[in-house]
Amino acid sequence: MGVIGRDAEFSALDSAVRAAVGGRGRLVMLRGEPGAGGTALLNATAERAVAAGLRVVRLDAAPAGRHTPFALVGQGTAVASGLELAEAARALLSEWTADGPVAVLMDDLHHADDESILVLREIARELPHSPALLVTWHRTGTGRLETLEKTAEVHDVGPLDRETAHALVANLVREPSEEFLRLCDGASGNPWLLTALAEATGLSGAFARRVTARVAELGGPLARAAAVLDDQSTVDNLAAVLGSTPIDVVPVVDDLVAAGLVHEDGGVLRFHHDLVRAALCDTSSGLRRHVAHVLSRRHAPPSAIAAQLADAPGGVDSWTLDWLREHAEPLAKRPTPAALRLLADAVPALGPGDPRQLPLRAAHAEALLWSGRFDDASRTAHAVLAARPDADTRLTARMTLGALSVLRADTTALEQLDAARAEGPLPPRLAALAAFCCLQNGDFQGMGECVAAAQGSDDPLVEVYLLQCEAAPLVVTRQNTKAIEVLDRIDALLETTVYDRGQWLVAKLQRAGVLDTEGDLGVREVIAEARPVALELGGVALAWLYATSALFEWKRGEWDATLAEIDEAFTLPDLYGLDRMLRSIAAMIHLNRGDIDTARAHAATIQRDGHEVRGVAAFYEQIPTMLRALMAHLDGRDDEALTIARQFADGGVGVHSGFAVTAVGTNLVRIAVAANDLELARRLVDQMAQTISDDSRGFQSVLRYCRGLVDGDVVLLREVQREFTEQHNPMATARVAQDVAMVLAASGHKDDAKTAYDAALSAYAGVDATGAIQQADAAMRATGVRRGVRGKRSRPKQGWDSLTDAEQRVAELVAQGRTNSEIAGRLFISPRTVQSHVSRILRKLGFSSRVEIATGFGQRG
After folding, report:
1. What is the CATH number of domain 7-157?
2. N or C terminus: which one in the chain shows less Cβ crowding within 10 Å?
3. Helix 480-496 and helix 501-517: axis angle, to 10°?
4. Residue limits of the HTH luxR-type domain (predicted)?
5. What are the boundaries of each domain within the chain?
6. For residues 247 and 264, what is the distance between their CA atoms, to the nearest angstrom?
7. What spatial distance separates the first Cα and last Cα of the chain, rounded to whole Å?
8. Residue 730: which of 691, 764, 680, 686 has the closest Cα?
9. From start to end of 518-666, where are the E strands?
10. Distance CA 375, CA 615 (A)
11. Cα–Cα nearest to 279, from 185, 202, 177, 195
12. Is domain 800-859 annotated with CATH 1.10.10.10?
């Protein structure tokens, strides 16, 4: 019958048809958005009714000269009283059933007049005693029909789900491509749009004309203006574009909303279906230049005006060039694809010697930079400098090259700064940028000199750079409260006064690092906010984001999520030295899980690939160094492990020795205590004490842990165990519980040691740390303590019980029909991480599709 995905509706209609054959009629009202397939459902119902022996009567309540139900009763004469109405209804029902059971099918009931609706109410009351089925279709949200709906069996005909929508398209298009199916997703499951798109074989002019024609009767000019305006589609803007008044526009907007074409969101009209907006835009390109002028007069955001000008037919005109020169800076700093196209088209439109050319080319270079097109940005900026521009344009080009070197973690910025110094004292912006470059390279002395040269400027961008230089040492020295205060000031400047995408990202990642030290789960939200910008920019910022996320999830015991982030990071062409840190984390996870071979492979790769450390990677160098110590300790090479620990104590690892020690101190102190080198252990603790401020709650717990370990203080260790639990650090919780057991065993309290060790085993088992359990067993056996209660059983390798907590959450959301993007937004992770989870779920469950996950989730034991 050509209707796909409506099994529930057909089941209800089949039941109603059978009841009418038996003399028990009813009113069935189908309702949905325009294009949801109401007419197709009525046609299919007619076929089923005829097959069951019913006569079929078709009615249409649509205007434009066609009959309404009431016109069949009184030839347009109004019904004056309830008695006359009841008689009219009975007469109509009698007429319909005169020749036996009947199915009356009525389309577009939302157009029916009030008298018709009253007649239908009376008919509905008689239907249960008559061999007549009345089926109607109307748009959702038709308020005049609410009373009638109370007397009926009502079915909401919703959009098709994604799988069914693709099946519908596959019936119409032979082997649709993935690109075409993605285009179909813009129909949001609307059958009419999907059919029209398939018949036009894409977003062609034919499809656009067909959609525009369908919208025309609902307020075509306003709908086209709303489509072109997009996010600026307010009533006031619509009125301005149409040369009307808001009072005149509101009724048409109400009609579009009632028709289900658009909805209002925060005062902006938004189309229910992306395809409809795209189709209307396709037939309305001539409006764009006019819309741009209107938006300019109304002081709309430059990006909104650029979106109109970039797609306006006829190329770049003189007005556009003048407007663009005035607004180039904000467009370059927050480039949209439209703004980037517009800047690229503007430069060729200018003749040689035009004073607007070089400033626009410099703005284009900056826009390319913040769009992640680093090579193009570099070429364009160098070309600008080669043309000997004025001082302001020269500064813009050099700032672009400087920011580019920051994102690439190279030294080209310093070369540009040397060239600038040859022309005289560095402008404050370049001096501040130089300070940040020195900070990135771990050159704190050079940073201080450049900060001094930039002082005294009232430029807000200079202030942002200098505040970053102030925040980083606070983060390094664990002065978290002060660091957050400075980062708040940076955020305020970037949100209200000036914008720099690179510094915005740095501030977010700095904040994530501070929150991580406190065990604050808000890190996930910060990373989720930063991820889209980092993905767009790429460079060292993206590698740093993966490293920050992996480090956080590692500490929280979310090891599958950690490995997924690491896998995603290794798809990048360059990790700027952070690959050493990421491989080290992966190796330690595999160590804790008992996969020694994989851990050794990661460690060997780190050694083989050398010691390239660039930019921010220098601040994480303590992690691969710690891995070397752990591997040596695991292999019984305690002398080598202690030598590495002494390198830390002597300040020979990382950019800042105190920072390096505090980041990995617990492992180093444990190694020293296990080797009975308490002097080394105390040296490490002293270094930590000098670095950690009182307001760094997370690292105060680390310091207290190490002191308790060195002093054998069970009371202190148990306090720290509770703190680690509150800070969501399961491995630290497990280790301190094991250390409590070791101290108790050494002092002869075997029973208490056994109880403490059982708690450690339970904590280790909670994160599937089977390797850590094996190592702990060996250490405890040496004290004469063996396992009591064995804690949680090991997780199986296959089946639903084999899924980690993270995988269980993803499986549940997959079962709800959510896409990877939706799941990523819900769980504050990336879509690629979600896909990694889904792949592991499929492998562990032996499934081959998401549908099987959904089905199996509902049936799991």
Report:
1. 3.40.50.300
2. C
3. 150
4. 796-861
5. 7-157, 203-284, 459-531, 538-603, 800-859
6. 16
7. 39
8. 764
9. none
10. 19
11. 202
12. yes
User: What per-residue string of b and e applies to 149-188 under the rule 16 or more CB within 10 Å gives b?
Assistant: eebbeebebebbeeebbbebbeeebeebeeebeebbebbb
How far is 57 from 681, CA to CA, in rounded Å? 92
- Fold assignment, 203-284: Arc Repressor Mutant, subunit A (1.10.10)
Say how many C-beta atoms besides its own lie within 10 A of residue 532's C-beta: 10
Give per-residue pLDDT as tens, 74-131.
333 333 445 666 777 788 888 888 889 999 999 888 888 888 888 888 899 999 999 9
**Contact by Cβ (8 Å): 225, 287:** yes
In a 13 Å sphere around the CA of 687, the CA atoms on its Cβ side amount to 27
Which structure tokens are listed for 818?
Answer: 């959510």
DSSP 8-state secondary structure symbol assigned to residue 457: -
Q: Quote the CA–CA distance of 165 and 184 in Å, as a whole number.
A: 8
Sort strands 153-156 and 262-265 into parallel, antiparallel or unpaired: unpaired
Please write the tens of the pLDDT for every residue from 627-670.
999 999 888 898 999 999 898 888 888 766 667 777 788 888 88
Residue 816 token pair? 């709800």
Fill in the amino acid letter for 721: Q
CB 820 within 8 A of CB 838: yes
Strands laid side by side in the 153-156 sheet? 55-60, 102-107, 132-139, 26-32, 153-156
Which of 779, 539, 117, 317 is CA-nearest to residue 760? 779
Q: Would the CATH topology of 203-284 be identical to that of 800-859?
A: yes
Beta strands 153-156 and 132-139: pairing type? unpaired
Residue 529 to residue 511: CA distance in whole angstroms = 12
Q: Return the SS3 of 60.
A: strand
Question: 615 Cβ partners below 8 Å, 6+ apart?
Answer: 406, 409, 440, 441, 540, 576, 577
Predicted pLDDT of residue 81: 46
- The helix (run of H) or strand (run of E) holding residue 643 is helix 638-649
Residue with tokens 């202690």: 642
Find residue 139's DSSP bridge partners: 32
The DSSP bridge pattern shows strands 26-32 and 262-265 to be unpaired
C-alpha torsion sign, points 142, 148, 150, 151: negative
Which DSSP string do the residues of 315-365 spell out, in sequence order?
Answer: ---HHHHHHHHHHHHHHHHS--HHHHHHHHHHHHHSPTT-TTHHHHHHHHH
DSSP letter, residue 161: P
Q: To 5 degrees, how large is the angle CA 394–CA 397–CA 399?
A: 105
Token output for 836: 């990694």
- Specify whether the CB–CB gap between 104 and 132 falls below 8 A: yes
Other CB atoms within a 10 A radius of the CB of residue 375 amount to 9
Q: Where are the beta strands (DSSP E) in 723-849?
A: none
Contact 752, 717 (CB under 8 A): no
> pTM for this structure?
0.74
